[in-house]
Design a protein that fits this description.
The complex is a heterodimer.
Chain A: H1 2-6, E1 13-22, E2 25-35, E3 40-44, H2 51-58, E4 66-71, E5 74-75, E6 89-92, H3 104-108, E7 115-116, E8 119-120, H4 122-135, H5 151-164, E9 169-173, H6 181-196, E10 200-204, H7 208-214, E11 217-222, E12 225-231, H8 237-245, E13 265-273, E14 278-285, E15 289-294, H9 300-307, E16 315-320, E17 323-325, H10 330-335, E18 338-341, H11 345-349, H12 356-362, E19 369-370, E20 373-374, H13 376-390, H14 406-418, E21 424-428, H15 436-451, E22 455-459, H16 463-469, E23 472-477, E24 480-486, H17 492-499
Parallel strand pairs in A: 3-10, 3-11, 6-9, 9-10, 15-22, 15-23, 18-21, 21-22
Antiparallel strand pairs in A: 1-2, 1-4, 4-5, 7-8, 11-12, 13-14, 13-16, 16-17, 19-20, 23-24
Chain B: H1 2-13, H2 18-38, H3 45-70, H4 78-100, H5 104-130, H6 136-154, E1 159-161, H7 164-170, H8 172-175, E2 177-178, E3 181-182, H9 183-201, H10 203-213, H11 215-220, H12 225-251, E4 253-255, H13 262-272, H14 284-303, H15 312-333
Antiparallel strand pairs in B: 1-4, 2-3
The chains are: A alpha/beta, B mainly alpha.
């Protein structure tokens, strides 16, 4: 492993016993962390373990309450507000920091445009951009607008932008959280190139297989404490997961109880068509967990947005309990007991600038109205119930939802949706960007809901989760369901064959 | 009176940001102290009554604007809307004199028409922004121009005057008092209370805040975004109509220069009060204080010769900028990291 060769080199960036508290609340306790040139150092831990805080300290966005930061061996006070970019330390946030309406070239040179006398020197900038992109093996035109790029491409632009600023240390917060597998592959190839160039990379991820694959060393944090820093080759994924949560994680997935094949059909969809969906039919039984697998963009989200009245559809029929229905609004679907939980919890799920209470009651708001007035007591009671039921761990109930961790946000979103008391729950990417401990909890919630007689649809791009949780799986490809797998057939090979178009079942339900 | 009634409950629901909540109240208090120290007649009953009455127009319109802005919209057309409603009201009442005489019936017809016109104008703004999918700024900039030119056209470039006989009947609505307070102030208080309850205690208020925070979240949370947004513009139109009803008897006329720049004063009152311009957080109590602050500045300048009265706009502008600057500071402090 390269880490052995590097072990004598002075770390490029080093945090020496740093502690950090926000007001009264301590979040990091004397944590040490370092990263060397040409190394990928992964930082893992549950949500709230202090990863983000440590990263922000390393990037100069926070000043530690105690402890030292050493840069190239010298104790340094990093300048605030990202000015440490000038030193070569670049932090790429999870929410990418690009000007959407500007072009790739304009973004890369943002703030240090080349100019000749008073005019911009577009020619030299375009050429340099082209060169940077080619160096990284990214096939994007410098004049493309950022808003026209996929998330993965935007990520590449961020990296190219960082590299064009001669970054020595690149700190990345969950860069792969929103990438598909193919995009992740591409991304890792870029990381390898950067490593070869001698860049020090700090990589935060919840996806342990990726950590295992790409990182040289890994540091585990738990509850603001340093747990271990080890060479990745010395750790199994199970060991990492255990150190993260501090307990055995043998049962990540709940035991599957067989569904009653004769249970009543609560939802039947026939010949659904929209601009993205082509003739989709399926049945959902009471108490069943039906998975929807397939590549990103295969139409899974579009299908359920159409069913739930969020987007219109061209033709097709929906039967709820055998009765033909057509929801014209989300409210109608909700009142019929069907709710859709979005995969975009920050953009479409939660009001980030508000506290938990108005968020929790928003979806089921009519329930909280008494004599035309909001019944705040009922809301408070519901919040207490939701916090207990879904184990939401917020510092205090007045914290803004945007300041909560991803895992807690997801639990709040689940609690919000459950306030509608649905009979059919559709969850899109239930565990995107959350830690393994919270994942386990969410899988158990889903299983418990189904055991109570609720029907659940799980849309997911994470194969293990589909396999681990669902009774039956529908695989979609290019707007069609290419096949259903159930029971012992639910395995990766079978699903991938349907998803990739290598196999297609004759149209049946 | 009214500022206390409205500011106190707001405090209860947002106890953790005292500075932001109390800021406008403190500013008003300071202005009053300054006013009193410059001229003790500032706090005389006559002047306080006058001040409250003057605040009523902008205040009522600004309460409507609080809804529009909280839901993430903006309405630039209110000043012109007030002018065109005033103009049409006068035309309608003058024409009704022949049939209904110069009594209360005619005035009621005028008021009824004013309310219908206000709701209609608000509905147009609302539908164009939601169904027409045009930005609110553009839509209301357009209707602002249209309404302004219409009133000029109706007045044929001059002034529309209310029939002298009706003036006598209608006059008390502006000039008479009821339990010691002029009628416009009562209307202001009533609109304030209804507005406060609507925004803070009903599902509708919650919907407005949610839409202003994020339309996408609102849509996915089963909220009919288009309908609620249209309602906010209708409420705005209704508030303009009410303000016009109490404004017309003051001068008994309308012209192309009626209500000029009211939209800016209304928006300024809303912003000074702590409502966030990009939506998602609205405060009726703050809006009321904002309207009072704006009127008080003008009043103090009238009272003293320390600063020229012509600098009224400068003082108002400074207050707006300082108010927003102070709010910005306290937003920053709220930033915390992940739990």
């Amino acid at each position: 492993m390269p880490s052995h060769e590097n072990s004598d080199i002075t770390p490029l960036l080093c945090a020496d016993r740093v502690s950090m508290s926000f007001g009264e609340v301590p979040v990091l306790f004397s944590v040490s962390f370092d990263v060397k040139a040409g190394e990928v150092h992964a930082l893992i831990g549950e949500n709230g373990a202090g990863k983000s805080t440590l990263m922000k300290i390393l990037g100069g966005f926070h000043q530690p309450t105690s402890g030292r930061i050493l840069f190239e061996g010298e104790p340094t006070a990093l300048p605030p507000f990202g000015q440490s970019e000038a030193l070569g330390i670049v932090l790429i946030h999870q929410e990418l920091n690009l000007a959407e309406q500007m072009t790739v070239e304009e973004n890369i040179f943002l703030g240090r445009e080349h100019s000749r006398s008073i005019f911009l020197d577009r020619k030299s900038m375009t050429e340099l951009t082209r060169k940077y992109l080619a160096d990284m093996g990214v096939d994007i035109s410098p004049s493309t607008r950022i808003s026209d790029l996929s998330i993965a491409e935007k990520q590449m632009v961020e990296i190219v932008k960082a590299m064009s600023r001669d970054a020595k240390v690149l700190i990345m917060d969950e860069p792969t959280a929103v990438l598909t597998e193919a995009e992740t592959e591409l991304f890792f190839r870029q990381v390898e190139k950067l490593k070869a160039k001698g860049v020090a990379i700090v990589f935060v991820s919840h996806k342990l297989p990726e950590v295992k694959k790409i990182a040289d060393r890994v540091t585990i944090l738990r509850d603001g404490q340093w747990i271990a820093t080890k060479s990745t080759s010395d750790l199994t994924m199970d060991a990492m997961a255990q150190m993260m949560v501090g307990r055995e994680l043998s049962n990540l997935y709940p035991p599957k109880n067989e569904t009653d094949v004769d249970a009543e059909i609560v939802l039947a969809v026939r010949n659904m068509r929209t601009s993205e969906i082509n003739d989709v039919s399926f049945d959902l039984r009471k108490g069943e967990i039906l998975g929807f697998s397939g590549l990103v963009g295969s139409g899974r989200t579009a299908l359920f947005e159409a069913i739930c009245g969020i987007e219109p559809f061209e033709s097709g029929e929906i039967f709820v309990d055998g009765v033909s229905t057509h929801f014209k609004s989300v409210a109608e679907a909700r009142d019929a007991g069907i709710t859709y939980l979005t995969k975009d919890r920050k953009g479409k799920g939660l009001l980030l600038q508000q506290t938990m209470r108005p968020n929790l009651s928003l979806f089921a708001l009519p329930k909280f109205v008494k004599n035309f007035m909001m019944d705040t007591d009922a809301e408070e009671a519901a919040l207490k119930r939701g916090i207990r039921r879904f184990d939401i761990r917020a510092r205090d109930p007045k914290v803004l939802v945007g300041d909560m961790s991803g895992g807690n946000q997801q639990k709040l979103l689940l609690a919000k949706t459950m306030e509608c008391e649905p009979r059919i729950l559709i969850i899109d990417e239930p565990t995107r960007g959350i830690d393994v401990g919270t994942k386990q909890q969410i899988y158990h919630f889903i299983a418990a809901l189904a055991a109570d007689g609720m029907s659940v649809i799980v849309i997911s791009s994470e194969m293990p989760e589909i396999i681990g949780v669902c009774h039956r799986v529908a695989v979609m490809r290019e707007g069609r369901i290419t096949g259903f797998v159930s029971g012992s057939e639910i395995n990766e090979t079978e699903i991938v064959r349907y998803a990739a178009g290598l196999k297609e079942a004759p149209a049946h339900v | 009176m009214s500022e206390n009634a409205a500011a106190q409950p707001t405090k209860k629901s947002w106890p953790e940001i005292d500075f932001k909540t109390l800021g406008p109240a403190i500013a008003l208090l300071i202005l009053c102290i300054i006013g009193y120290s410059l001229n003790s007649a500032f706090l005389s009953e006559g002047n306080v009554t006058n001040l409250l009455t003057r605040s009523a127009f902008i205040g009522i319109i600004a309460i409507g604007a609080t809804f529009v802005i909280t839901a993430g919209g903006i309405d630039l057309s209110v000043g012109s809307m007030a002018a065109v409603i005033a103009g049409l009201m006068i035309i309608i009442m003058n024409n009704a004199v022949d049939t209904f005489g110069s009594g209360v019936a005619t005035v009621l017809i005028g008021c009824g028409c004013s309310i219908i016109l206000g709701i209609g104008a608000g509905w147009i703004n609302g539908v164009l922004t939601t169904k027409g999918k045009i930005e609110a700024f553009i839509v209301t900039l357009g209707t602002m121009g249209i309404y302004r030119s219409l009133v000029t056209y109706f007045a044929d470039g001059g002034t529309l005057s209310l029939d002298f006989a009706i003036r006598g009947t209608y006059r008390p609505v502006y000039y008479e008092s009821f339990f010691g307070l002029p009628i416009p102030v009562w209307v202001f208080i009533a609109v304030s209370i209804v507005g406060w309850v609507l925004l803070n205690r009903t599902a509708f208020g919650r919907f407005c805040t949610a839409i202003g925070s994020s339309e996408a979240v609102a849509k996915y949370s089963a909220i009919n975004v288009d309908r609620i947004k249209t309602y906010t513009y209708i409420i705005q139109g209704l508030c303009v109509a009410l303000a016009t009803i109490i404004y017309v008897p003051r001068l008994g006329s309308a012209s192309g220069s009626t209500g000029v720049l009211w939209e800016l004063e209304a928006i300024a009152a809303v912003i000074i009060g702590g409502t966030v311009l990009k939506g998602g957080y609205g405060r009726i109590g703050g809006t009321i204080l904002g309207a009072l602050i704006l009127t008080t500045i003008g009043n103090i300048l009238n009272f003293t010769d320390l600063i020229s009265n012509y600098l009224n706009g400068t003082m108002q502008g400074l207050i707006i900028i300082i108010a927003v600057w102070l709010q910005r500071g306290s937003w920053g402090k709220n930033k915390k990291t992940k739990t």
